[in-house]
Amino acid sequence: MAKVLIIGAGGVGHVVTHKCAQVPEVFSEIVLASRTEEKCKRIAAQLQRPIKTAQIDADDVKQTTALIEREKPAIVINVALPYQDLAIMDACLATGVHYVDTANYEPIDTPKFEYSWQWAYQERFRKRGIMALLGSGFDPGATNVYTAYLAKHHFDTIEELDIIDCNAGDHGQPFATNFNPEINIREITAPGHYWENGTWQTTDPLSVSRLYDFPEGIGPKKIFLLYHEELESIVKNFTTLRRARFWMTFSENYLTHLRVLGNVGMTSIKPIIYQGQEIVPLQFLKALLPDPSSLGPLTKGRTCIGCLVRGHKDGKEKLAFVYNICDHEACYREVGAQAISYTTGVPAMIGAMLMLTGKWQGAGVFNMEEFDPDPFMEAMTRHGLPWSVITPIAPMA
Ligand SMILES: NC(=O)c1ccc[n+]([C@@H]2O[C@H](COP(=O)([O-])OP(=O)(O)OC[C@H]3O[C@@H](n4cnc5c(N)ncnc54)[C@H](OP(=O)(O)O)[C@@H]3O)[C@@H](O)[C@H]2O)c1
User: Fold this and answer.
1) How many whole angstroms from 8 Cα to the centroid of ligand 1?
2) Segments making up each domain of the chain, as ranges
3) Residue 113 pLDDT > 90
4) pTM to 2 decimals?
5) From the CB of 176, is ligand 1 less than 6 Å away?
6) CATH number assigned to the domain covering 142-339
7) Does domain 2-134 sit in CATH 3.40.630.30?
């Protein structure tokens, strides 16, 4: 039915390509392009159906524009790095092609992410008659839709939101990140922010924690407050929210490594001169750490990511937790990737599918919670990420 161009052949690109290949009635042709074409070819060789591959530097708008003009896709799924978002959006504008990504723009030399840069494309996308769907991964992505789903079906008003991301899996490595190490460490070492009573509150990195009892046998885990990009759009689109926070689990071992690396300067993005050559310590660290896509065969255990919402229904206070549990080994059996790449790649495919089938339509730049959550929730169950809603006993402090 439609041709898709996927940009980025890392852990997430691997899953997006596999999942698009599973839905030929929507994605009738697939082109996978990345900086290192060899990685695209390796993914292509694992599939049951032929796809095209290409080499591209997506920082270069002209190269992406030329590739789009040559291949004529109906949609571009950007699963390269956040640094490429604006350049790829520019190429989509130049060619009149729809756009999907999973992470908001971040300038390479400033550890700061926010939607302002991409929201600024609103008028240009609207006038061009094309759609950009921002943050169609799990968090952001499924978490935005989970919030919209609870608001639509379980509450009259939602007042408190806690997005909770638990990776209870183990890859057996002394220290590794589950997605791009550079992006991951930039996010975790940044100050925490959360929304309360109409303003952003700031906390020192990883300084606020709680114990949360996860369902289905995962049990109690320590969670840490972080800033995460979906909070920015969710508080804008759900104005009754009095408080909105994001939490993630980390093991003591992970935090100890991170602390030591931070103390010796290895997580810094400030360039230094080493033996006459300029290097960025965090980029050098990335080169030393295991490639997240190599963790697939090693990772055991489950993830649980969900949204805990407190609000009112029929005049009564209510609490609900909507979540998915994903098994690392089951993901590896299905597509040869661990659950973090899987939980990101499946929603990216679903976002593109809903756009191509006309279920989510619009001209302009959109966040996930702006659309009807029902077709997305239905597709999540059908494509490998089933979810449940439960009523927890107590709200989070
Ligand atoms: N929303 C969510 O839930 C969520 C969760 C996890 C990750 N993410 C996002 O998903 C994206 C991909 O993450 P990942 O873990 O798959 O990262 P990754 O394994 O590092 O893969 C990134 C891929 O992009 C390619 N790339 C980088 N710069 C490029 C350029 N200028 N032109 C073309 N290709 C380029 C890389 O090429 P090389 O192979 O040559 O390096 C690599 O193949 C990131 O933006 C990340 O923030 C979102």
Assistant:
1) 6
2) 2-134, 142-339
3) no
4) 0.96
5) no
6) 3.30.360.10
7) no
